[in-house]
Amino acid sequence: MTFHDVRFPASLSFGALGGPERRTEIVTLANGFEERNTPWAHARRRYDAGLGLRSLDDVEALIAFFEARQGQLIGFRWKDWSDYQSCRPSCSVDSSDQLLGLGDAETTVFQLRKTYRSGNTTYLRPIAKPVAGSVRVEVGGDPVQQDVGFELDDNTGVLRFASAPDHAAEIRAGFEFDVPVRFDTDAIMTSVSRFQAGEVPNVPVVEVRI
């Protein structure tokens, strides 16, 4: 998959409409009951970048970014302002935010992930595009320094420790992250007069699997 490790201008994604999308297959039985299933293990997020545009300069920046990505061809990073860090929006990133796993004295590789909880149900979302410089890691409550105690692949969200964490030691991390996306259209239709009157173009963006 072709992907540019560049973020869509955060000032333009602010105010965009979007969020997670699930796919559910529903079969209604003869007795009126339903059978529900999903082929997706993880949600796929969709956004409308057009709603973040506020000026003709913003339109120019959007077109330049669109042309550089060649429409739908090349993926890029997107900041989802409603969900872009390992902690609550009102908090600051901390190394204790998310539990990545427990040490077994053998495993050295762990995937960044974010846990979503509702009641007794949890969903683990893999994080593939952490923001460089934002990742904080601790093992057994002790901070671990990047490039000394562990290496991070910014393109996959994979942590690789220099030595395997001790048995039962909690591996935790805090971070900011982007969503890997692409444009979901090969055409952007703009009108200067309509934009100045309050209308903005429809610019769909969709998450891609990494």
SS content category: mainly beta
H/E element order:
EHEEEEHEEEEEEEEEEEHE
- Provide the residue-averaged pLDDT: 94
Distance between the termini: 8 Å
Count all strands and give the number.
Answer: 17
Biggest sheet descriptor? 6 strands, mixed
- What percentage of residues falls in helices of 4 or more residues? 10-25%
Give me the number of helical elements: 3
Radius of gyration over C-alpha positions, nearest whole angstrom:
20 Å
Shape descriptor reads globular
pLDDT < 50 runs, ≥5 residues: none
Determine the strand fraction and express it as a percent band: 35-45%
Biggest sheet: strands side by side, in what order?
Answer: 1-6-16-17-5-2
Strand and helix map with partners:
Layout: E1 3-7, H1 10-13, E2 17-21, E3 25-28, E4 34-37, E5 44-48, H2 56-68, E6 75-78, E7 98-102, E8 109-111, E9 113-118, E10 121-126, E11 136-139, E12 142-144, E13 150-153, E14 158-161, E15 170-174, E16 179-183, H3 192-196, E17 204-207
Parallel strand pairs: 1-6
Antiparallel strand pairs: 2-5, 3-4, 5-17, 6-16, 7-15, 8-14, 9-10, 11-12, 11-15, 13-14, 16-17
